[in-house]
Amino acid sequence: MYFENVFNDYIVVGCETHFFFIDMEKDLEALIEEYFRDSDYGIIELVLRGDGRTKVAEIFVDNENGVNIDELAKINRDLNELVDNNLVIKDISKLVVSSPGAERPFKFLWQLKKHIGRILEIELNDGEKLEGKLTEIKNDSTERDYITVDIIKKEKGKQIVTEMRIINFKEIKESKVKLSFSK
Question: 109-177 maps to which CATH number?
């Protein structure tokens, strides 16, 4: 349902690339794509890291309604079993499925739906940095996806003024939830 091909942007960290590994990556990608094709989960990122016998494939997934730990454990078991039964992977010692976590920026508009009402830290493509409360997400049929944010501005005397701003999702370089440990 939320599947988007992210494998053109996968990250390889500290791996020696050779032809077998490239072929194996393509087989792994195809297997993962097929598994998630009819799922409510979407693939956020595939990270390959390590070298020698310690190569690890990390698959980050998310869901519009949030990640359920029991479902995540099932996905992890299913994918490990699929890989064990369908691929000859000598170069990967571990396959890990995880949620993106709070430290990873959002890649897709649908990821933001569960965060309406929360404070976001946003950096735009032009370098402008904003902080504001996410109030609305719009996805229209003309490919103009945007979010509405009540921008928080601090003025002299520490008054907080908010200003509503509509931001095209394509103008966002990076956005993530601002973590707050106080109530």
Answer: 2.30.30.100
